[in-house]
């Protein structure tokens, strides 16, 4: 069985609940919760998302190297139609090492296309891509068919 790494960022806790659900389904997987290093990460994240500020601030929590895994599952909220800035930083840092990956994002509404941005950054489309709306997440409706 291939080794799996779960990497997630959660601001409000919604994506964290989803990540813990994935971990229950894949108990052998390793897991990294990422965030920005330093105390001003929330302000930087909001400004980066709103104005699409370039750059990759230092992140923390990426303890496992994705190149050591046969599969990586990325979980993140969507801000301003794109992955939250800290996940963008992670993808910019590790994108070349994502050989097989899935992308799962939480959003306030339907129709977000962060997988397109990830494809542009990595040159590789996610094996699976799935959007979980806030309404479904609040109801615990995590239909992860194709992801797990």
Commentary on this structure:
With 148 residues, the chain is an alpha/beta fold. The protein has helices at 14-25, 41-51, 85-94, 114-122, 134-138; strands at 4-8, 30-33, 35-36, 59-60, 71-79, 82-83, 101-107, 128-133. The strands form 2 sheets. Strands 1, 2, 5, 6, 7 and 8 form a 6-stranded mixed β-sheet that branches. A two-stranded antiparallel ribbon has the order 3-4. It is globular. The relative contact order is 0.19.
Summarize the structure.
Strand 7, helix 4 and strand 8 form a beta-alpha-beta unit. With 148 residues, the protein is α/β, with parallel strands linked by helices.
Could you tell me the mean pLDDT? 85
Q: Gyration radius, to the nearest Å?
A: 14 Å
Strand content: 25-35%
Broad structural category: alpha/beta
Specify the helix fraction band.
25-40%
Tally of contiguous helical segments: 5
Low-pLDDT residue spans: none
How far apart are the termini?
A: 13 Å
What is the H/E order?
A: EHEEHEEEHEHEH
Q: Would you count the extended β strands for me? A: 8
**What general outline do the C-alpha atoms trace?**
globular
Largest sheet properties: 6 strands, mixed
